[in-house]
Amino acid sequence: MVNLPLELVEYLLDELSDDRKSLIAALFVSRAFHGRALFHLFQTVHLNKDPDFHQFLALCEISPLVPSSVRSLKIVSWGKEPQLPPLPNVTSLHIRGQLDDLWQIDFLAITSLTLEDLVFPTAMSFRHWLCAYPYLKSLSLIAVTVHQPAAFGAYAVARGPALENLSLAYVNENVYTMFLGSVAKEASRFALHGLRQLQHRTLYSFDVCDMHKLLYATRGTLRELDLKLVFYGEHGTIVRLVTDD
Q: Do 105 and 1 share a structural domain?
């Protein structure tokens, strides 16, 4: 096959980015297509079941380019999955089910994290988990439960990652406490010092009190607010506010 300029190869494969069959076929046409084709094929990876993990691991063994191609990863974990290889370029991580302590050191570069259907034993264990991601900018919590808040005054003075976007959906009251710490001590607040966007979904109107505390704590930086109360599957917008810088 005639050698094509790299720019042309990338352009051709970028045009096929939504056509998985063509991208797979390109792998068999020329080695020059491998890098860009793999990038599009594995840019987003969902590992929902045990067979998904094993198939992905097999592909990583076949091609060493696969792990470095992954940018966005969703893991549904029940605690018995095989260990993943290093995925150095993952910047977006979605974890549902159970946590693996290795994920605190395997994904240090992530800027976006979604945690869903997870339980943390204490507010401090939750803080320690989030502190493992120093570059984190966007955090989404869906049906996350924290069993025990820290005892009054026990919160470490730790600013946490500089979140810009926080989304809370159907979380329990101790999650708010995890962010706010001791209401009387501003230094005990966690990851709120640069927050610009806040989204909130709840089934209960009494969560508004906790949201008021969050709004007060972020009043100096917050620029966009989206609050919704859900009634039996129907979404009712309470507040949607965008302010100019």
A: no
Using only the alpha carbons of the chain, give its radius of gyration: 21
Residue 22 CA to residue 162 CA, distance in Å, equals: 41
Q: Are 90 and 114 in contact (CB under 8 A)?
A: no
Of all residues in the chain, the percent with pLDDT exceeding 70 is 71
Residues 5 and 69 in one domain: no
- pLDDT for 68 equals 87
Read off the DSSP letter of residue 31.
Answer: G
Strands 197-202 and 145-148: unpaired
CA distances from 129 to 114, 136, 245 (A): 13, 12, 32
* Three-class DSSP labels, 36-64: HHHHHHHCEEEECCHHHHHHHHHHHHHCC
pTM here is 0.82
Chain segment 58-108, per-residue pLDDT in tens = 888 888 888 988 999 999 998 888 889 999 999 999 999 998 888 888 898
Examine the domain organization and report whether 129 and 197 are in the same domain.
yes
Handedness of CA 160, 79, 84, 53 (dihedral sign): negative
